[in-house]
Amino acid sequence: MTFHQPPNIFAASINLIVEDIEKSIVFYQGILGLKILQQFEQKVLLTADGYQPLLTLEQPEGVLPKESRRTGLYHFALLLPNRSELGVFLYHLLRTGYPIQGASYHLVSEAIYLQYPDGNGIEVYADRPSEEWEWTEGQVVMATEPIQAQDLLAQGKEKEWLGLPKDTIMGHIHLHVANLKDAGDFYVSGLGFNIVQKLSNHALFISTGEYHHHIGLNIWNGEGIPAPSKKSAGLHYFTIVLSDKETLNHIISTLSSMKVKIQEENKAYFVHDPSGNLIQLKVH
């Protein structure tokens, strides 16, 4: 998983606003298999390895149901260390009876999709060996094909489900944006990502270090859509990890020259992308 290590730039964790934190804990522990790292009255940090938070849930006063046709989270994607663990996870879902929204072979990865009642899309996936990925003129070749479910299940049916493996990481974040060009300019020119695939005029996939994508951007909710209200369930912010202070300073300087407002809070830096999605910039 060197694609998610310095000097690459990548999304490492996500903070969500939820309507019912107790109900959310039941799902994220029992179905998804994360563990509680820290818990407060209206906030909980969830982890796979017992040290680093992957997902933080918050229930603010006056929280609203997730608003439709807004910018924000399309899905977050948890990357498992290998295909066998994905088979274990699929077997677990079938035993629990939790509805699976989809399952796809993307040439670069195999993925299982599900949705939490708050409306947050969730992907759990395993990468195919990177030496098998095909690149054409700087673009990675991805597709959506049926997954080999029986073969995948055979990989995992002999193993006991003990929750997500400790080396599970945040593989990528996929966002609804209001304008694809503006979003692309911000993430590429401002944050230093590279475009690795463009789907016509409606989606971009960006990464560093020739990963298939660390962030996805789409306008599938519509062009020019507004950002959600601050208390809407859904994305609060996600964290992008940078390799060192020098990289952080360079990005801050670049964003400032682009007239992007940067807020410093408790030694962390926060910025909004052009669609209102909030990002924390953090040194590894």
TrEMBL record:
Keyword Metal-binding tagged: yes
Domain VOC, residue spans: 10-127, 169-284
Gene3D superfamilies linked to this entry: 2,3-Dihydroxybiphenyl 1,2-Dioxygenase, domain 1
InterPro entries xref list: Glyas_Bleomycin-R_OHBP_Dase (IPR029068), Glyas_Fos-R_dOase_dom (IPR004360), Glyoxalase_1_CS (IPR018146), VOC_core (IPR037523)
Alphabetically ordered keywords of this record: Metal-binding
The protein's name: VOC family protein
